[in-house]
What we know:
Chain B: This is Carbohydrate ABC transporter membrane protein 1 (CUT1 family). Chain B: Its main location: membrane. The complex is a heterodimer. Chain A folds into 2 domains: 1-52, no CATH class; 62-272, MetI-like fold (Orthogonal Bundle), CATH 1.10.3720.10. Chain A is 77% helix and 0% strand. Chain A has helices spanning 2-32, 36-39, 54-62, 65-96, 102-112, 117-131, 137-141, 148-159, 163-171, 176-187, 189-205, 208-213, 222-233, 237-272. In chain A, helix 4 runs antiparallel to helix 11, helix 4 (65-96) runs antiparallel to helix 13 and helix 11 runs antiparallel to helix 14 (237-272). Chain B has helices at residues 7-38, 57-64, 66-97, 104-112, 119-129, 136-143, 155-183, 187-195, 200-228, 232-237, 251-261, 265-292; strands at 41-45, 50-54. In chain B, strands 1-2 form a two-stranded antiparallel sheet. The two termini of chain B are 39 Å apart. The model of chain B has no long low-confidence stretch (mean pLDDT 88).
Amino acid sequence: MRQAFSKGFIYILLTIGSLLMLLPFIWMISTSLKTPGEVMSMPPTWIPESWKWDNYLKAWEMAPFLRYTLNSIIVVIVSTIGEIITTILAAYAFSRLQFWGRDIVFAILLGTMMVPGEMLLIPNFVTLSNLGWINQYEALIIPWLASIFSIFLLRQYFLGVPKELHYAAKIDGCSNFRFLWSVMVPLAKPAIVTIALLKAIGSWNAFLWPLIVTQSEEMRTLPVGLTAFTTEAGTNFELLMAASSMIILPMIILYIILQKYIIEGVSKAGLKG
Amino acid sequence: MNQKPTLKDTLIGYSYLLPALIILGVFSVYPIIKSFFMSFYADYDFFKDIVHSYGFDNFIYIFQDTEFYKSLTNTFIFVIGVVPASISISLVIAILLNSKIKFGKLFRTIYFLPFVTSVVAIAIVWQWIYHSEYGILNYFLGWFGISPIEWLNDPKWSMPALIIMCIWKSLGYNIILFLAGLQNINPQYYLAAQIDGASKFKRFWHITVPLLSPTTFFVSIVVLINSFKVFDEVFALFNGRPGPGYSAQTIVYYIFEKFYNEWEFGIASAAAFVLFIIIFIFTLIQLYVGKRKVNY
């Protein structure tokens, strides 16, 4: 009896908590489907009287969201693929190859993780403007093509693969490169998927860097474009909520489909880091 | 196979490292050194990239700048507002989620949602929640007889508004880490305690709390460091301003303002250096205590 009572209490607490977590999302979607009049009605309604799907179209047409979306997609895809390639190569070198200076280079790179990224902002801006890359895709993508954090994670995973596999492959005359692509990479697929997903989410949501290195409208990514849109939309909250939904929902869908990788990745990465 | 690496091995090794090393060298290692020097640029011409003189001027400037002190104070208020609340709420939720219930996965999925959400987009949603006339928060508060609060336009309320949103956003990540920590506790301890007749609370206090302490400590440091770096949330919640009357200006916002709006690269670098020192101290504490283990 007491058991059942405390179980019920746990469910009630967790349900209230989840409602509080979901509320901003529900409120966002609900508002995005209302008429301007209903948005400003008190008391607020949760289910729109008539579902105004064309708010999404209106918001989409009010600002160059097509361009912002394309930019975001280009940046996400290129920087994710690029980071995965550099990560696989470097993690392999740090975990399976023997060479001079390996441990020192690795220690220096790990040390850089202690420095907040905000400190790198200004010198990187100077470097990119010397290269003439400000307001170009290069500035949005190239600095993010490698991550020491991802290298560290994948190296840990590679270290868990039995060394005997490597010896056996060597005796059979398999080259390092072939061994990496046909044995290590398939074995490490879960870790690679996790790294790619975390990168894609981070890249899609990134704000401060794209804000600083883009100047013209046609180079903006979605989050930067959205902050500019707030001035245009003014107090039309139904349009603002529609635009916010367009940025938030793709990542939520990706997360719900692939949450196993994301949640496992976060808990492993967190506790080891 | 652990013989000394030959020259050929070394060349092969670095050829694998090369792509990552170029990127990390240019955009992570070099800027750390450069940033240190930039904070001593007393007279700098960005357009020609020429430094006319070096000196402590930037540090002298920021330590005499009331704006900078205000940013520091605001950042500390933010950290104190977010860290304890976020840690304790997520710890409680993680423990509840860990208690063999149905729909555990569904709850976990929901709590984690804000983590995958764009800060900028969700901050705009929170702007709407905080709206003084038509926002739902003031509407709910109205049920308890609380008159509408100007969350985003009153300098008194801008920090609380920022803190509430950031606690909401940070919970999911912490919960996942706490759950991982809880699942690492060997269930035999609980079984043994139960056989010895320890009550539920005693089991929690004498097993869960001490064995979870390394995780709690780690999560606290991570949240702490991230809280010191808050920026996107401020920018988006207050429409590209640091709150009404600079009331929500944080250190990173100060750096951004000096660098991006005022083109004072040296001053911005000096402020970034101060941020680095603060974070570095906490990282050292983490490494030091982490080595000694908070565990028993």
